[in-house]
Specification:
Helices cover 59% and strands 5% of the residues. The protein is mostly helical. Helix 12 crosses helix 14 and helix 15 packs antiparallel against helix 16 (329-337).
Length: 430
């Protein structure tokens, strides 16, 4: 089973969101339980991967309520909205339509609600009239309705959208952005604690610096982080890769010059001047030094002194991330440049600088993730469902592929899977 599904939160305490967001959601639910909701709907909006839909399911699980969900694979025009959402929101149970209930006993989830539109299309399957109909449903609902959105501000421009927004508690999932505030710090602390817990359960050892690198490169996208760490388990951390990340390739010449100056020059100020117009990060600079330092420092004493300087710079970077004082990263860079004066005996021979192995490892993981996303897209099209839902049940497809030869042959032929995609499908089911 893929980690995104295996480690999906089951309890509110497992959610990686800030305390302020949990507090707002809890108060909204409490008012519903008391039968006195001020806002009958709640909108959770933010970029994909921040846990909006998961949050809804976890809350419902804690309350013991089922979730009636309409997602990207459902038709959300006026007729479908009346047929499904109206009954689910007004009546306590779809199996006992016509019975009045004293209080709510389910949560209605409209996932990716920003895709609903108000215009009228002649093509079948369109979401015509969905917004205005949903606004009416919210006003008359007897059960809490939650809408998740990726493009909230685009949704606001649509006709009748204000009727929904005004009737809803609007919560933006911003804690995943790099902000020096309490919400972000709480999120970051919960995220790192959760990652380390998963690593312990899986018996995988990864250095904290590499964990931080994965978190930063995924911009705190929880799904992306889990996918990358899972890829380390699947593909290992060693070995070389010829497919380096495009961004790193573009800046290779610039960083090559900086590294060469760092190792060959005795003039510390010259090294700093080389770094003034750099197009790479402080962490990249330090990784390049770390990778190539043993080839440049010929004397053990020089190597020891240089690594001591680099180690201090690395500790400073760790404190920068911990305290969220990013402006101080420049001092770590200047400390790293001090390697130039630590190497007394310069290597006069040509040294072909090697690409940092950790960056190659990240590139392999990104390539593996892209391959998996392509496979998910093919499966979702064949199953007539959303890619998100296919991802949730990917473990089942993998299970069948490893145990049913006819199923594997059939799906390979129907979807025209490549050898790598077949291998990926079979590997996940083991």
């Amino acid at each position: 089973m893929v980690w995104v599904e295996k480690y999906r939160p089951k309890k509110i305490a497992d959610l990686i969101v800030s305390d302020s967001i949990l507090d707002q959601i809890s108060k909204w639910i409490d008012l519903w339980k008391e039968g006195t909701p001020v806002k009958k709907a709640m909108i959770l909006y933010g970029p994909p991967g921040v846990g909006k839909t998961t949050t809804v399911h976890v809350i419902a699980n804690e309350l013991g309520w089922p979730v009636v969900e309409m997602n990207a694979s459902d038709l959300r025009n006026r007729d479908s909205m009346k047929r499904i959402a109206l009954m689910a929101s007004i009546y306590g149970d779809l199996t006992t339509i016509g019975e009045n209930r004293s209080g709510p006993n389910k949560i209605v989830l409209i996932d990716e609600a920003d895709n609903i539109f108000e215009g009228r299309s002649r093509q079948s399957g369109g979401d015509t009239g969905g917004i205005s109909e949903l606004a009416k449903i919210i006003k008359s609902t007897r059960n809490p309705i939650v809408l998740t959105m990726n493009e909230y501000y685009e949704f606001r421009r649509k006709s009748s959208a204000s009727e929904i927004i005004n009737e809803a508690l609007n919560i933006e999932f911003l804690q995943y952005k790099r902000r020096n505030d309490t919400d972000y710090k709480q999120f970051r602390m919960k995220l790192l604690a959760r990652i380390n817990q998963i690593l312990r359960e899986e018996g995988i050892k990864i250095g904290q610096s590499q964990i931080m690198d994965i978190v930063e490169r995924n911009e705190n996208d929880i799904r992306g982080i889990l996918n990358d760490i899972e890829s380390i388990r699947d593909y290992g951390q060693g070995g070389a890769s010829s497919q380096a990340d495009v961004g790193y390739r573009d800046s290779a010449q610039n960083i090559y010059k900086a590294i060469s100056t760092t190792f060959k020059s005795q003039d510390y100020n010259k090294v700093l001047r080389t770094l003034y117009d750099k197009d790479f990060t402080t962490e990249d600079y330090m990784m390049w030094i770390d990778q190539n330092l043993p080839d440049e420092a010929q004397e053990p004493k020089d190597l020891m002194d240089a690594y001591e300087v680099l180690s201090r710079a690395d500790r400073l970077v760790g404190r920068v991330f911990k305290k969220q004082h990013y402006a101080f990263k420049m001092y770590a860079e200047e400390m790293s440049a001090g390697v130039s004066v630590m190497i007394k005996e310069k290597n006069e021979h040509y040294v072909k600088y090697k690409f940092p192995e950790i960056i190659k490892s990240m590139s392999r993981m990104r390539e593996a993730r892209r391959s998996r996303e392509q496979l998910l897209m093919k499966l979702s099209v064949a199953a007539h469902t959303s890619k998100r839902k296919t991802r949730d049940y990917f473990w089942f497809y993998s299970y069948l592929a490893t145990r049913d030869k006819k199923f594997l042959e059939g799906i390979e032929k129907m979807l025209q899977l490549s050898d790598k995609e077949v291998a990926r499908l079979k590997k996940s089911g083991k």
